[in-house]
Design goal:
This protein is mainly α and about 200 residues long. The chain is about 75% helix and about 0% strand. Helix 6 packs antiparallel against helix 7 and helix 7 packs antiparallel against helix 8. The longest helix has about 40 residues. The N and C termini lie far apart (about 100 Å).
Amino acid sequence: MLVIGAAVAIVVATGVTVYWQDVQRVKREDAALQFLAGEKLLLEGKNAEAVAHFAKLAQETGVEGYALLSRMKEAAAKIETRDVMGAVAAFDSLAADSKVDPLLRAVASLKAAMLLFDTASADELKLRLNPLAKDDGPLRYSAKEMLAFIAMRENMNDAARKQFQELADALDAPQGIRARAAEILQTLPPALPEVVSPSDPVKK
């Protein structure tokens, strides 16, 4: 009887496992189809419908990966509807979510800053970008490039020149960023010569 009971238990456990795997497979397949349906809406230019579709999918799907992708797509679709602040809020929500992978959180933070570049103050942008520009940040060079552009936008040419020079010289920076920095350095006005006051000692 003990042997029979053990055999039955094994069969039941196996059946439950197979059933659970089947349920998860169906959920993943459904989530994939729903995600592709949202992509189709974007391709058709139905951006407002895509926003609503991805927002619903993010809330209702039980598949974590597709929930996260849907949140990213919802934010991107809002850009297409010219709802810039809505997109910023969506990216900020992702960046603040501790359950999201740190790299994706950094990407969301950078995207929000990029969307605000033309409208936000330099101080606000620096608050957003300085944490991303730390030496151990995965997107540090992209953040540093934006900080250099902010300095140039604010006519702080000396600071911009210094920042772009550092990017151009950074051997581990992405090649595109280094190339852009080198090109921009050619367009910046030369540094002003140091003015020596008559009262200053003569430099040798």
